[in-house]
Design a protein that fits this description.
The structure holds two protein chains of two kinds. By secondary structure, chain A is mainly α. Chain A contains 14 helices and three strands. Chain A has a three-stranded antiparallel sheet with strand order 1-2-3. In chain A, a hairpin with a 5-residue loop joins strand 2 and strand 3. In chain A, helix 4 crosses helix 12 and helix 5 runs antiparallel to helix 6. Chain A is globular and about 75 Å long. The N terminus and C terminus of chain A are likely disordered. The radius of gyration of chain B is 24 Å and the shape is globular. In chain B, the strands form four sheets. A six-stranded mixed sheet of chain B has the order 6-7-8-3-9-10, with helices on both faces. The termini of chain B are far apart. In chain B, a hairpin with a 7-residue loop joins strand 14 and strand 15. Chain B folds into two domains: about 240 residues, Rossmann fold (3-Layer(aba) Sandwich), CATH 3.40.50; about 150 residues, Rossmann fold.
Chain lengths: ~375, ~525
């Protein structure tokens, strides 16, 4: 026992305590340091594994993302796509409704958009067609999101599994329509829809292909920010997410809020599908969502549902993806190296959240580590 | 005398952010002694004890155990030093049995010998007079049984110094007596016991010495035999506080709420309330007494529209003007639409009455966020209300944008009561409104309830402290197993009578049930 006492009489080497709050500049500083450290660690690993100059590798990543004017716009297009989905997921996750079904909601939105292009492309003027596509996708995504919400509200069905399974239904549905709209016959793809007439394609605005994508998503981002922070609905979402008991006590109709919020969430993901079809690929396939419905969950959580913070996080993730593809092809590395880099950077970003919330103190000294 | 000091804490300081929870606290605990640690909410009692239990680590200061300097860096080390703490919120695993909970976390490398554990538990029980069934699952246990299990758990681990954080807050008077009996047995056995409590009469009854903390400072300690409740209150609060609860005669009482045949079933089909009949009058405080779990929660929630009641039930609300309104079978939304000003301070403050992660302003909105036109919520009025509540009820908070979860228990309750009273209720229901609150805050709450009574509101006060019920209320309704056993006049009844009504259902009541 006495031996234990001796052990016990030493102060622990490292202690952590929760911070009471941290000034904004400091928290940004911690994040920047985290990013810098991540780059240094990546550099060491790149060098030790491949003997390449890490600076050149980083330069290549940058070039892959922003190298040419076209690349810049493709990057922006991908950022707003990811952002749009994250904005759609924000209300659901704020309500602690685990909407894993963004993939499916995007796909049905995309199907609705493609259907409008194929069946109405000749009969409607371009502007009207785009408006119809917008609302069609919104309604389709909204319905897809509301179905699990109804089951949750009525029978308390687990929404995580339900939304996840709805993804597979949506994928099958997409396969069915791809087969139905196959063009040319036997290619097993839909091909570029309305290639000649460009009906239903986003028109270039200010001479740029993707300006409309940016405008739509910017409006959604601002609107969602206001909705969550200042509206009565946003308040209800926050209360339901925190405690259903409190919500019932406060005379909030929990079931209505669940259904309504998922309708909004699904509708915005449906709009993302519309943008993917009308504003980017001009076709539909089972990979139209391409896993972004899952990546967007990371974006939404990291941003703590602040839609403006989501812009920065979407940008970072898209930058990493683009850069990774570029270095993989330029230096003839396989994909794993680039994925490692992405992983290391995300690890350090998440790690800096820890240092923002906690203080670390070392034994003996009054030294307080800021990081 | 030096040898008899079990723990000596010297100049202990602990800060959380900018808040100084303990400021150079020096405290001695002797062997074979029951020390009561007294102080208002947020005075740093629990923080100080958590440092002994290894949950927090002091910023500065020294701790000596049996004269030896120690550093308690983790709960594990606290166990090795024979310190055991029984927390306010039990730390038990519901699906395991008592015996399994006891050995949980002991990291025994050998195969666990349940038989041996059982015998050891039995031995501890016999020595101190506990009753614990080692094979009973925790989810089948009453609050009192769980607490007993927690104590046996720390004794099994060899604790010589026991810290009990507000152990009596959840116990009935009878259970409290049992606990005190056990504590005295442990003291005889040479153990040191620290008890944190707010109830002065318990301090006077059980402790040998009292140490008082105020705002993180150690004010002093006195032998219990040389002090009294008045003096202790003065030490705690820093000024003299009257310990009498005012009670005015109800003025012009009119029926406000007429409840007939109220019956509530839980999800297993068991009657939680059976044929409850009573009338609450405006300008009167109706107390509700009963052993915990006798249907108090269901009663209030049924009136508030949060519990489904059987179709035979009738809850009629009679407003000042206009027709009477039937509340039975209504949702809170419907009740709100009817314009019934019904204030409800629920038992679970942060789980039902407030949203812990939201700040004061947003919590003020909880009842009124729908007011005003347009899709956007108005935050100006709630902000003003928050300012008023903070000022008038003396809520201690860093600011209006602090999440209420960060406030101490008493301040959380002030925020909740303040909001409910602000809606000018015609009916005010409160469940365990002063649970865990210090004397000063408790009296503030009693005063607020009295004000509502004078305003003409019908006040329903579910309480657990019989002394308070007898002093504060006009009539007391005693619940027993979900039935109204009797409604007595609080001015003429006695504690014994109410205690008896709480435990023994009258003959006629059971017959009535059989007929029904």
């Amino acid at each position: 026992m006495s031996k234990k006492h001796e052990v016990a009489s030493r102060e622990p080497l490292i202690r952590m305590s929760k911070r009471d709050g941290i000034p904004t500049w400091k928290s940004i500083g911690v994040r920047l340091i985290g990013l810098a450290l991540a780059l240094i660690v990546c550099a060491v690993i790149i060098y030790s594994l491949t003997k390449l100059n890490p600076l050149k590798v980083y330069a290549a990543m940058f070039k892959g993302t922003f190298g040419t004017n076209k690349r810049v716009w493709v990057t922006i297009r991908d950022i707003v796509m990811l952002l749009c989905i994250a904005v759609g997921l924000a209300p659901a996750f704020k309500m602690r409704f685990w909407n894993i079904g963004a993939e499916g909601q995007i796909l049905v939105g995309g199907i609705a958009a493609a259907a409008c292009m194929i069946y109405l492309g000749k009969s409607l003027p371009s502007f009207a067609l785009i408006v119809v596509m917008f609302f069609g996708s919104m309604v389709a995504g909204g319905i897809w999101g509301t179905i699990p919400a109804v089951f949750k509200a009525r029978w308390n069905a687990n929404e995580t599994l339900f939304t996840l399974m709805m993804n597979y239904v949506a994928i099958q549905l997409t396969s069915f329509f791809v087969a139905k709209w196959e063009n040319p016959f036997g290619s097993n793809t839909v091909g570029v829809i309305n290639q000649m007439t460009k009906a239903g394609w986003f028109p270039p605005v200010f001479g740029q292909m993707y300006t409309l994508n940016v405008i739509i998503v910017a409006v959604l981002t601002v609107a969602m920010f206001l909705y969550l922070r200042y509206s009565k609905h946003g308040y209800e979402i926050a209360v339901v997410g925190e405690s259903e008991n409190t919500a019932r006590y406060a005379a909030i109709n929990v079931k209505t809020v669940i259904k309504r919020t998922m309708a909004v969430s699904g509708a915005i993901c449906g709009i993302a599908g519309f943008i993917a079809v009308a504003g980017a690929s001009h076709t539909i396939s089972t990979s139209t969502a391409g896993g972004r419905g899952f990546t967007a969950i990371i974006v939404a959580w990291l941003a703590k549902f602040n839609t403006f913070t989501m812009i920065a996080i979407s940008a970072l993730i898209v930058f990493l993806e683009k850069g990774a593809i570029e270095i993989a092809s330029q230096f003839d590395l396989n994909d794993f190296v680039s994925e490692m880099i992405t992983g290391i950077i995300l690890f350090f970003i998440l790690g800096s959240e820890f240092f923002i919330n906690y203080k670390i103190r070392f034994r003996g000294g009054k030294k307080e580590a800021g990081k | 005398m030096e040898s008899s000091i079990a723990i000596r804490m010297v100049n202990i300081t602990k800060t959380f952010g900018e808040v100084v929870a303990n400021n150079k606290v020096c405290l001695d605990i002797n062997q074979s002694e029951i020390l009561a640690l007294l102080g208002e909410n947020g005075s740093g009692k629990t923080t100080l004890m958590n440092m002994l239990a290894g949950i927090y680590f002091p910023d500065s200061g020294e701790i000596f155990i049996n004269g030896k300097a120690v550093t308690i860096a983790s709960p594990k080390i606290a166990f090795d030093l024979h310190i055991g703490m029984i927390h306010q919120h039990f730390k038990l695993v519901d699906v395991l049995t008592a015996a399994e909970n006891i050995i949980l976390g002991l990291n025994e490398t050998t195969v666990v010998d349940v038989k041996h554990v059982r015998e050891a538990v039995k031995e501890i029980c016999n020595r101190y007079g506990f009753v614990v069934d080692p094979d009973k699952k925790v989810y089948d246990m009453s609050v009192s049984e769980k607490q007993t299990l927690e104590i046996v758990k720390v004794l099994y681990r060899g604790a010589d110094i026991l810290i009990l954080d507000e152990p009596t807050a959840v116990l009935t008077p009878q259970e409290t007596q049992k606990l005190f009996c056990v504590m005295r047995n442990m003291k005889e056995d040479g153990k040191s016991i620290i008890i944190i409590t707010h109830k002065l009469h318990e301090v006077m009854e059980i402790s040998d010495r009292v140490a008082v903390l105020r705002k993180g400072f150690h004010i002093g300690d006195v032998p219990t035999s040389e002090t009294n409740a008045m003096k202790l209150t003065e030490m705690m609060v820093g000024r003299a506080v009257s310990l009498d609860i005012e009670r005015s005669v109800p003025v012009n009482p009119k029926p406000k709420l007429v409840v007939k045949n109220l019956t509530v079933c839980d999800s297993d089909g068991i009657n939680r309330l059976s044929n409850v009949d009573f009338t609450a009058y405006g300008g009167e405080i109706l107390g509700v007494a009963g052993i915990s779990g006798s249907g108090q929660k269901e009663l209030l929630e049924a009136i508030a529209g949060l519990q489904y009641c059987q179709s035979c039930s009738s809850i009629e609300f009679l407003p000042e003007k206009g027709e009477k309104k039937q509340l039975s079978g209504m949702h809170p939304i419907d009740i709100k639409r009817l314009g019934v000003a019904l204030a409800f301070v629920p038992e679970d403050r942060l789980g039902m009455g407030l949203v812990g992660s939201m700040d004061l302003t947003d919590n003020m909105m909880l009842r009124s966020y729908q007011d005003g036109p347009g899709p956007f919520a108005d935050r100006k009025k709630p902000k003003q209300l928050a300012e008023t509540v903070v000022k008038e009820l003396e809520v201690v908070t860093p600011g209006l944008s602090t999440p209420v979860r960060r406030l101490s228990g008493g301040n959380v309750q002030k925020v909740l009561v303040g909001r409910e009273i602000a809606m000018q209720p015609q009916l005010l229901m409160s469940a365990y409104a002063v649970r865990g609150l210090d004397i000063n805050t408790s009296y503030n709450i009693y005063h607020l309830l009295n004000e509502q009574k004078k305003r003409g509101a019908a006040v329903i006060f579910v309480g657990e402290d019989l002394d308070v019920l007898l002093e504060l209320c006009d009539r007391i309704m005693v619940l027993c197993s979900g039935r109204v056993n009797d409604i007595v006049d609080a001015r003429t009844t006695t504690k014994d009578e109410v205690g008896y009504l709480m435990t023994y259902l009258k003959e006629g009541k059971t017959n009535h049930e059989q007929k029904a």
